[in-house]
C-alpha cells in the first residue's frame, strides 16, 4: 500500500487544481531523498505534457527540491504559467520560459528588489489600519535596511550573506529581542521573494540562531568584568 502524501503535498495539489484547473498536477521525481519538481498538465483530449520546475542539476545552488519549503514557490510559478497559457495560448514549456524571463530568475536575470519589497509591504498591510501599524512599528526599518543591502552590496549573492551583512551592520546585542526580530523579519522577506520569483539561493537558512546569537549569562558577564579589572 503506497504511503499517504504529506499534508503539505495534499494542500499544494488542491491549491494548484483550484488556481490552475483539474488537469494540473505536481509531484517529486528522481532517485534519492532529494527529488526534482515535475509539473504535469493533462488536457481535455487526454494528452498530457510535463516539465521540471527549476534547474535540473541538483548541485545547482538554485535547484528547487520537492520539499515543503518549496510549496509556495511551486504554487506561484504554476499559477503564473497557467495564466500565460490561458491568456496567450502558449504551450507549457514556452509559458514557463516566459515566466522565468518575466521574473528575472534566469542565469543572467536581475531581480527588481524594490518592486518585491513593495509587494511584500502590500501583502503585510492588506489587513487595513492594523496591518499598516504593524508594518510601521515592526517591518519598515528592517526591510529598508535589507533592501539597501540587496541593492547596493554587489558582493551579497545569497540569503545567508544578506543576513550576515545585516548582523554586521545593525546587529544589536546577541540574543536580544530587537536582533531576533530584525533577523526574522528580513528572513520572512527573503522567503517571500523566493515565492515570488527569486532564485532559491536567496532563501535564508532554516536555523537563524547563528545570526540571532545568545544572551550572555551572568557568569559570563562577571567573568568579562573580572578580566577587565585585571587588565
Secondary-structure map:
Layout: H1 7-20, E1 24-29, E2 36-42, E3 48-53, H2 71-88, H3 92-103, H4 113-125, H5 129-152, H6 159-170, H7 177-195, H8 209-212, H9 218-230
Antiparallel strand pairs: 1-2, 2-3
Helix pairs in contact: 1-2, 2-3, 4-5, 5-6, 5-7, 6-7
Tell me what you see in this structure.
With 231 residues, the chain is mostly helical. The protein folds into two domains: 7-103, no CATH class; 113-212. The chain is built from nine helices and three strands. The protein has helices at residues 7-20, 71-88, 92-103, 113-125, 129-152, 159-170, 177-195, 209-212, 218-230, and strands at 24-29, 36-42, 48-53. A three-stranded antiparallel β-sheet has the order 1-2-3. The relative contact order is 0.09.
Strand arrangement, major sheet: 1-2-3
Spatial gap, N to C terminus: 70 Å
The number of helices is 9
* SSE topology string: HEEEHHHHHHHH
- Radius of gyration (CA) equals 21 Å
- List segments where confidence is low: pLDDT < 50 over at least 5 consecutive residues: 105-109, 227-231
Mean pLDDT: 87
Outline type: globular
Q: Which structural class matches the secondary elements? A: mainly alpha
Q: Beta-sheet strand percentage? A: 5-15%
Can you give the helix content as a percent range?
Answer: 55-70%
Biggest sheet statistics: 3 strands, antiparallel
